[in-house]
Each structure stands twice: as structure tokens, then as C-alpha cells.
Amino acid sequence: MRKVPRTRTCKPNRTVSIIGTGSYAPEHILTNADLARMVDTSDEWITSRTGIKERRIAGPKEFTSHMAAKAAQVAMEQCHIRPEEIDMIVVATVSPDTFFPATACHVQRLLGAKNAACFDVSAACSGFLYGLEIGQQFIANHTYNTILVIGADRLSSLVNWKDRNTCVLFGDGAGAAILRSRDESYGVITTYMGSDGSYGDILSMPGGGCALPVTSENCEQHLNTIQMNGKETFKLAVTSMQNAALRALQQANLEFSDIKCIIPHQANIRIIEALADRLKVPMEKIYVNLDRFGNTSAAAVAMALDEASRKGCFEIGDYILMVVFGGGLTWASSVIQW
Ligand code: UT7
Asked: Which of 130, 137, 195, 234 sits between 20 and 30 A of 88, alpha carbons compared?
């Protein structure tokens, strides 16, 4: 019988670290006061119900890939990685530039990362942690050495700007992380991911795919924009992030007292406060930037990670917990030793 050549090694798994982070937010700021001139809302309502004060909106020619590439460049500069060294680009997004090519391929072209295998991950707001786990696996098992994971979304293009229930919540942005194995033991300790497709309807964009293609009739009914049952999403967000956070800690064999900083999905301050309450952790331990960026979907936790690390919220050796939820439903949590 013909021998199948072995392409994988049998070496023990490697530890995988985040060696660089970056983020990007478009220049244009849309404040609550601006929104109050567009729909029947107020700064008071948005601030008290969500904690959001302003969000960034991409320019008309600024696509998801442009924001993703800018975040990636910041991350690459931080850890001195050249584009040719990147073996794989994973972009988590639900607002791709095009259905295909994947946004990751657009990013590859923009960066000149000619040696990378590129693809997108669709897990809504949970996508960055899904991408992190995919990258982690490929490095741990010695398939690749350097992986760029990006969470990027331009939800301003998926929002119905006449629907006050949703248009006040979202913003545009991108966050990136470079993964590599380091000799030190720091790195991704554990990641837990889960989904429940039976809740797909509570947060979705029903149109645009093969089920409801882009037709003038479907567009008139706003089926190609975000549809959300806010109250139901709120409840499931708290429960799924609570369970995911506990699961990751259990897998990592750690207590909340061991964690220096918790970075949750940035959707609504009331969701984060309810989570803190259920987990019995003080809000001071939780990183929040949704007041300035709103909910940037897959970018949110990645942007917050970059910002928190640059502000010195944690140092080498500290444990961080990231926890997210999103449409699907999807959820995920990751414990990292920085
Ligand atoms: O990445 C995941 C994305 N999604 C989420 O995380 C969303 C989770 N859900 C939420 O954050 C909250 O449910 C919302 C912020 C969306 C809504 O807050 P709420 O406290 O659940 O408000 P509600 O939906 O119960 O609405 C209360 C009232 C309603 O008026 P009536 O029926 O009581 O007269 C709404 O029509 O507030 C009204 N309302 C608004 N009023 C002013 C809804 N949106 C607005 C608005 N401005 N923007």
C-alpha cells in the first residue's frame, strides 16, 4: 500500500500567545444628539438604556477590509511582524466587503501578506473569539507559526437608519491580534465556544442570502437590515455570557479572584452590569468602552483588548477573561495569560 506522506508533526502542542494587538475606529463620530435629529430618540434615553454616548461611522468608501487592514497594521507594528511572515488571516465579520472573495482575502491584498491562507468566520459578535480559537489550534498543532486574527464590522451598512430600536446601538470598527508560540508559558489557556441555532430569529439579518435574495420588494421591507428582539436578546446575552465565563474559568482551573481584567462584549452597559452582578465581580475589574464606540459586533472585544492592554490594565503574566455573545445565538469565552 502507498505510504501517505505525513505533513503534521507528532510534537506535543505548543502554547499560543497574543504577541501584538491593534485597533482602528473611523474618524467620523455620530453622537446621541446627532441620532436625535434622525429618529425619535434622545441622548437621555440612549445613555440610560445602553450607556452609549457616541459611535464611529465608516466613510462611504471605507469598507470592512480597510478598517481590518488598518487594525492589523497597528498590531504588526507592535510586534515587528512583516506581511510575508503571516501564515493565515482569519477575519470575523458579518458585514463583509463582498460575499466572496472573503474579506480576509481583501485584507491580504491590502497588507501584501502573500503567504497567508485567508478566510472569514461568521459568528456575529462572538466571531473574534471563534477566530482566536481557530488560530490557536493551527499554531498549537504546529501547522502554522504566525496567524492574524481580526474582528471587523461595518454595521452602519446593515442598520435600518429609520429604526430607533436598533440604529442607536451599533458602530463601525476593527480589532486585530497576532498569534504566535512563545517560549514563555504565557498564552491562550482555554477557549469555550457554543451556539444555539433555535434562537436565530431574535437577532438576524434575514435578507441578502439565498433564502431572501436582494430584490426591491425585500429591500422595501428592510429585510436586508438588522432585525432584533431587544428584550429577548438582552436576557440571553446575560445568561449565555454568565455560563460561558464560568465554563472558561472552570476549564482553566481558576477563580475570579485570579483574573486581573474581564473584557466582555460591548453591547449595553446594563448587560455588563447584570453580568458583573451575577458573577459577583466588581465593575472595576471589567473593561468598558461602549460609551465611545457603541456595539461594533465582532470588533468590540478585539478593540477593547487592544485599548485595555495599551492603557496598562494588565501586565505580562496577568490572567484576562474575554466573554462574548452574538447573533446565532453564539457565545464564547477565553482565558489568556498575558
Ligand atoms: O450584539 C448583540 C446586539 N444586541 C443587543 O445587545 C441588544 C440587547 N438589548 C438591549 O440592549 C435593550 O433591550 C435595548 C437597548 C435594545 C432596548 O432597551 P429596553 O429597556 O429593553 O427597551 P424596550 O425595548 O423595552 O423599549 C422600551 C420603550 C419602548 O416604548 P414603549 O413601547 O414602552 O412606548 C420603545 O419603543 O423604549 C422605546 N424605544 C426608544 N425610545 C427612544 C426603543 N428604542 C428607543 C430609542 N429612543 N432609541
From this structure: 195
Is there a domain that residue 317 lies in?
A: yes
Instruction: Report the domain count for the chain.
Output: 2
Q: How far apart are CA 102 and CA 199, in angstroms?
A: 26
Answer yes or no: do 197 and 279 share one domain.
yes
**For 218-235, how does the pLDDT look when each residue is reduced to its tens digit (9 = 90+)?**
999 999 999 999 999 999
Query: Tell me, what CATH number does 59's domain have?
Result: 3.40.47.10
Q: Answer yes or no: do 174 and 28 share one domain.
A: yes
Which amino acid residue places its CA nearest to atom 17 of ligand 1? 230
- Does one domain contain both 201 and 233? yes
**121-142 pLDDT tens trace:** 999 999 999 999 999 999 999 9
Q: Residues 40-66: pLDDT tens digits? A: 999 999 999 999 999 999 999 999 999
Is 125 annotated as catalytic? yes
**Site to substitute for ligand 1 among 165, 226, 239, most atoms within 8 A of C-beta:** 165
Whether the bond between 101 and the residue before it is cis, its omega within 30 degrees of 0, is yes
Predicted structure pTM score: 0.96
Check: CB of residue 309 under 8 Å from CB of residue 21.
yes
Active site residue 210: no
CA distance 280 to 282: 7
Q: What is the DSSP string of 288-301?
A: --HHHH-B-GGGHH
Boundary (domain end) residue, out of 166, 183, 200: 183
Residue 229 a catalytic site member: no
Q: Which of 150, 183, 216 is the last residue of a domain?
A: 183
Question: Of residues 32, 66, 105, 125, which has the active-site annotation?
Answer: 125
CA distances from 323 to 97, 178, 194, 217, 332 (A): 26, 19, 12, 38, 6
Q: What is the rounded CA–CA span in Å between residue 267 and residue 244? A: 16
User: Across 217-313, where does the E strand assignment appear?
Assistant: 227-228, 259-264
* Range(s) of the domain holding residue 67: 17-183
